[in-house]
Amino acid sequence: MTSPSSLRAFSKALAPRGASRRLLRAASSSIPALSPAHRRSYSTHPPNAKLNLPTDYSTTPLLAHSPHAALGNPELPPEVRNGTTKRMNLFQAVNDALSIALAEDESVLVFGEDVAFGGVFRCTGKLAETYGGDRVFNTPLTEQGILGFAIGAAAQGMRPVAEIQFADYVYPAFDQLVNEAAKFRYRDGACGRSAGGLTVRMPCGGVGHGALYHSQSPEALFTHIPGLRVIMPRSPLQAKGLLLAAIRSNDPCVILEPKILYRAAVEQVPTGAYALPLSKAEVLKEGSDVTVVSYGQPLYKCEAALRQAEKDLGVSVELIDLRTIYPWDRETVFRSVRKTGRCLVVHEAMVNAGVGAEVAAAIQEDPETFLRLEAPVARVAGFSIHTPLMYEAFNLPDVARIYDNIKKVLEY
Amino acid sequence: MKSLRLSRPPPAALFRRGALRPASTLSASTSTARPPPPHQRPRPALQQRRHASSLSQRPDAKYLMFPGAVKSQFSHELRFVQPSAHEALPTYRAVDQHGVVVDPSFAPDLSDEEVVKLYRDMLTVSIMDVVMFDAQRQGRVSFYMVSAGEEAVSVATASALAPEDVIFCQYREQGVFKQRGFELSDFMNQLFANHKDPGKGRNMPVHYGSRELNIHTISSPLATQLPQAAGAAYALKVQRMQDPSVPPRVVATYFGEGAASEGDFHAALNMAATRSCPVIFICRNNGYAISTPTLEQYRGDGIASRGVGYGIDTIRVDGNDFWAVREVTRRAREMALQDGGKPVLIEAMTYRVSHHSTSDDSFAYRARVEVEDWKRRDNPIARLRKWMEAKGIWDENQEREARESIRRDVLKAFSEAEREKKPPIRAMFEDVYEELTPELQEQMKQLRRHLEKYPEEYDVSPFEGGKESLDK
After folding, report:
1. Which residues of B touch A116 (CB under 8 A)?
2. How many Cα atoms occupy the beta-carbon half-sphere of B257 within 13 Å?
3. Delimiting residues of CATH 3.40.50.970 domain(s) in chain A
4. Cys-Cys crosslink for A209: which of A319, B132, B142, B445, Cβ 3.0 to 4.6 Å?
5. Whether CATH 3.40.50.970 fits A67-270
6. Which residue ranges does the record assign to the Dehydrogenase E1 component domain (chain B) (predicted)?
7. Which of B258, B434, B174 shows the shortest CA–CA distance to A165?
């Protein structure tokens, strides 16, 4: 699955310094040590695993490990490609994007629970000090309040970037998102007002020990709502560009940030201001025999699985990052599947009525793509259950399950 | 104790409102044919009263019987009400920080042994907190939340309830569980998510629950428990109306001042008031919602002032004063059962001495000296200890002995629970629905086949029954 250090990203995000060390010294000797046989952490990697190994973020081809790799991205504007880069993890890239947005546009506001001191994942660090407490501030603990407030501010011409502390806690704000943000422009008609300035950010996904209420990926609940743009970045470089695009966009945008990547994913990120295209998928690796469609953290597992499949089976696999999950880039996916004839959709969220269902249905509905299909479209996703603490390793898509399904669609 | 009866909602007129009838008529009506069409149905009593009251206005009345404010006097003075013009609601105290009784009417209602038992409950929570905080730092558990500074609020309130009263906690109420009889092994089995954990290894640590102890399982989202508590209280009330042999029961529910910003808090108080539910809302106002201080959480007079606004009997109490918290809760329970039932709000003022959780470093947003000051100034455990020592029922030796034996017991339970197997993998699919759906059965088989096919890729050994548990 993931490296031990990334598994602890969630708790490390706020890992105490002095105080805890003192406590540790005071009490550690009193807790009986456990024999190695009994020692187990929450998500372990079995000793003989060949597929379910920790993701090595320092070598994965999905991250730009050199300035050259980062600046070679053809989606970047020329002045940025001629500029410099800086090594950042994902929370630093989000912070960089927010800082640029606050500097370049006075109408940008950043707020949410615990945002003023930097947020529980440090995405908003130093922003209140730099841009002032009128534009970067803490809110009371009320998600419906935060998003209603943000929609109102957007309707009056501001560009609020509201943070929901965990995606698992967005539900009290559902009314505001579904009935208000999404429908604002539609009901205002020729009056022409909208909540398009709104951007909502929320950490999502499994970290190994988040259990029911710190692991959810609720993107499919939002992709069902026309009017919202739903985005999930895979890396720091992508997070910065997609967040700036969302803030500048005149449609309300919901960005789900895989929280396991906040610290684990580190890459060279262009220092300049740049936006990456919304509703545009990216082909991360070209291939001719199978198309793997995913987004967010599972892309790293897909990459590992397809590398092994290519090695073992002598095939060539194409990997696509949807990036914007709705409205999604159907053409890029159709074009790929018409070429490969086989497709696998991978996401963490529950398989039932998920993004995989939408992608698979659209593929078989498109006459030209349907005729090219050599196998049913497969889905590798969370089971139709909640996100239980001890069973995350069995529930979320892993390299072995993706690998197995690549094989299955090939052998169909 | 002078109770703060600032506003008193009218007694519950449940029967008169026609909302409910005694069980006999209920069953009679369900056995008859269809109800008459809406226009032929008798108008609810409440609506009739409202119409009558607005019609009965006398020409020279000083009050206009507005349906929404029935006793508002006319005034020729144009004046906005300023919150600052009102004094802050007082904080009730029975015993001060030196352990000295300050309420002359206060008399302890517990035997010495009972006090010592509750004191040991508070100590247990405190000692378990230190051990588990450290255990999290060692990677032995993934997460933990300590109660430091708030032990009296949970233990003392729980001690004033009846065992059959139903409780909905937030997540910082280990003391409630301890007082009710949760064993150290129960805590540890949950914390280690082993096969003895009734939560079947699904929940994060500290999400305890116990059907036997009438405490619902903890849910991480804030304030969701509050309207549920109102509904549960209504259920208890209706059940007692339908069967008077059931003993009178209340619901108690806990939350922080941060959670009181959620819409659910407001919905809960309003619904509990309008349906006259026997529920005690217990707010732990500890000054911080993770990093957010109360000044950025609300601008009114704490949480107590809101109870008054909803027409709920309310009191603010010193949360570090075990005796005051117990006494207030005892009275609140009596009041909640009066007049057919009604809600009561208690705001217990405390200080969150600890970090929010093991995922938090509170020195990033508050001064270390502030915490040290608080620790020095006041502590609920130290305060009760001083009172006990002054009474001659506790001394240094007993304190040392208690701490040592509790620590030993905690570590023993810790070691035992840590070595237990995890629940069967099958548990991940169960309880989504009452019965496994065909889809879930298929997914279970799918996982079973996958584990069989890739045995090297998964460690199923910690789980009871290994992969075979998926066969059943």
Report:
1. 291-292, 296
2. 30
3. 67-270
4. B142
5. yes
6. 120-425
7. B258
Q: Is A54 in the B-facing interface, judged by CB distances under 8 Å?
A: no
d(CA B258, CA B262): 8
Of B2, B93, B6, B4, the residue nearest B319 (C-alpha) = B93
- pTM for the whole thing? 0.89
| Cβ within 8 Å of residue B413, ≥6 positions away | B183, B184, B185, B187, B188
Task: Please check whether residue A36 touches B, CB under 8 A.
Answer: no
- Chain A contact set for B201 (CB, 8 A): 388-391
Domain ranges of chain B: 91-419, 425-471
Q: Which of residues 153-212 of A touch B (CB under 8 A)?
A: 168-169, 171-172, 208-212
From A222's Cα to the closest Cα of chain B, the distance in A is 20
**Phi, then psi, of B464 in degrees rounded to 5:** -55, 125
Q: What is the pLDDT of residues B219-253, one digit of tens each?
A: 999 999 999 999 999 999 999 999 999 999 999 99
Q: Looking at A113, A163, A180, A214, which residue is catalytic? A: A214
Asked if B306 and B269 count as a contact pair (C-beta separation under 8 A), the reply is yes
This model of the complex carries an ipTM of 0.91
The β-bridge partners of A86 are: A269
- CATH fold of A282-411 reads Rossmann fold (3.40.50)
**A317: number of Cβ within 10 Å:** 25
Give residue-wise pLDDT tens across range B300-358.
999 999 999 999 999 999 999 999 999 999 999 999 999 999 999 999 999 998 898 88
The CATH label, of 3.40.50.150, 3.30.540.10, 3.40.50.1110, 3.40.50.970, for the domain at B91-419 is 3.40.50.970
> A105: left (phi > 0), else alpha (psi -120 to 50), else beta?
beta
Burial class (CB in 10 A: 0-12, 13-18, 19+), A3: middle
Annotated active-site residue A143? The verdict is yes
Q: Which amino acid is at B420?
A: E
Q: Beta partners for A269? A: A86
And the tokens for B425?
């993998």
Contacts 24+ apart (CB under 8 A), B82-86: B83/B299, B83/B300, B83/B301, B83/B305, B86/B301
